[in-house]
Give the backbone structure.
Amino acid sequence: MVKRTKTAILISGRGSNMGSLISAALNPAYPAEIALVVSNVPGAAGLARASEFGIATAVVDHKPFGADREAFEKALDRQLKAHGIELVALAGFMRLLTPFFVNAWANRVLNIHPALLPAFKGLGTHERALAEGVKLHGATVHFVSAEMDDGPIIVQGAVPVLDGDTPETLGARVLKVEHRIYPKALELVAGGQARIKGSSVAVNWTADFDEAGAPPVLTWPPA
């Protein structure tokens, strides 16, 4: 039997990427078990979606803590520990984490960002990619550090920027890649195939090598 790593997903809204992670984890051979979904927003749509799959949910509302971000994170930390969580995946969690939480969960928090980091950190990534005239755009799954949209990169997926693209059409193409690479990144980390070495991540792609002996290139459309 595969040893499954108990994983929590943190959301603030509908949890689009949450859905892709839950779908992957429905396979009993997948090395991560989605054991908890937590939102900082009461009534977030993703909570109901998680409940439909029989996944435990919790709300840790940030508003009662005011500007005390660390106090909020300590309450979140207690909730995660109470459920025996080992890994955390951020999926549209609209809170910047303080050094307290990042250090308490060092190398155990994953995030997905809709750009090919280190390019286009922050918001408005699709608009900025179009304004800069780049030919490739995409998404990145990385370990979380104390800096926004920073930390060792686990997996990236790229898409072409097409003539006539709008932020909406480009964003829709990137979202499809996000739904492919986030489950793959969580699989690699939970399965012990991705480990931090210095400022980068060493990935064992052995099981995914193609006939030429190279790791897969995750692009859209898929092969």
User: Anything to note?
Assistant: Helices lie at 16-25, 45-52, 69-82, 99-104, 125-132, 167-190.
